[in-house]
Amino acid sequence: MLQITRVDIVDGQTLDIELSNGHLILFDTRHLPRINQGYDSLRDLEVLPRPDTNGESIFWKDGPRITLEEVLQWLSIQTIKE
Fold it and tell me: What SUPFAM superfamilies does the annotation carry (predicted)?
């Protein structure tokens, strides 16, 4: 089963996500969907605090949670739009 092994912040706004299969995902949080108001708190920050992961999701203490499934869905949508 695919899991998140590490997550960090690059350039203040980009998530650097390492997966258990060795792939890396760079995800710009400014592209988070506007449908969830919980993400607004992330979009508005100049520099994101470092998140944690439990393997299935990325989360911030007292903040939003982003699942690996959501990240993969957003990436597939971005690929189709391009």
Answer: NE0471 N-terminal domain-like
Task: Evaluate whether the domain defined by 4-81 bears CATH number 3.40.50.
Answer: no
> In the structure encoding, which two tokens stand for residue 31, read together?
């592209």
In the chain, the amino acid numbered 35 is I
Please state the three-class secondary structure of 14-67 as a single string.
EEEEEECCCCEEEEEHHHCCCCCHHHHHHHCCCCCCCCEECCCEEECCCCCEEE
The domain limits of the chain are 4-81
DSSP annotation of 63: S
Write out pLDDT tens, residues 35-77: 566 677 776 777 788 999 999 999 988 888 999 999 998 888 7
pTM: 0.82
Maximum CA extent, the chain: 34
